[in-house]
Design brief:
Length: 178
């Protein structure tokens, strides 16, 4: 269906109760600049679902869904100045397999990954991006939660240093806990 509108620049599918995204569905849109999927009922961003052929994509809005999982290889063709908004979802993890390539691309420009207002768990699996200075300006995360204390933690320098110490101690004491 999208093959018939290859010059489309702005696709707004917000608030349509979408529950799934087919693989490579947006590939025919070679001039797409804005993709708005805000406010649907998406729970998973599957592999290949956000593969794009446009070199000029500026914004992908995935906020206010029910997203719990972003699979490896969900994104392809993301520009280094793209803004991906995943705020106000149900993400508990920011896995390197799903976001590593995106943040590496963003580190070459001004792209932004917004994962704020999620229930991201404070754990050693966050260190891959918290300790990478190149990603500092490219991710908006603000807070994380741990299983013991329901009060959110700001992901500031003190938190990062404490997490490094905790994770180093945990990995030495028991590799299975890391």
């Amino acid at each position: 269906m999208l093959e018939s509108v290859p010059n489309l620049r702005n696709l707004d599918l917000s608030w349509n109760l979408l529950t799934t995204l087919p693989g490579m569905v947006f590939m025919p849109l070679a001039h797409l600049e804005i993709l708005n999927l805000k406010g649907n009922s998406l729970t998973v961003i599957p592999a290949t679902s956000l593969w794009l052929s446009t070199p000029i994509i500026r914004s992908i809005y995935l906020n206010r869904n029910e997203i719990k999982t972003v699979e490896e290889d969900a994104f392809l063709g993301i520009d280094y100045n793209t803004h991906i908004d995943l705020s106000v979802n149900q993400l508990k993890h920011v896995p390197e397999e799903a976001f590593g390539a995106v943040l590496h691309t963003f580190s070459k420009g001004w792209g932004i990954l917004d994962v704020s207002v999620n229930h991201i768990r404070c754990g050693c699996d966050l260190l891959w991006f918290l300790t990478e200075d190149a990603y500092d300006r490219n991710i908006i995360y603000a807070w994380c939660y741990d299983l013991i204390n329901p009060i959110p933690h700001p992901m500031n320098d003190k938190f990062i240093q404490d997490l490094i110490v905790k994770c180093n101690h945990t990995s030495i004491a028991s590799p299975r806990l890391n």
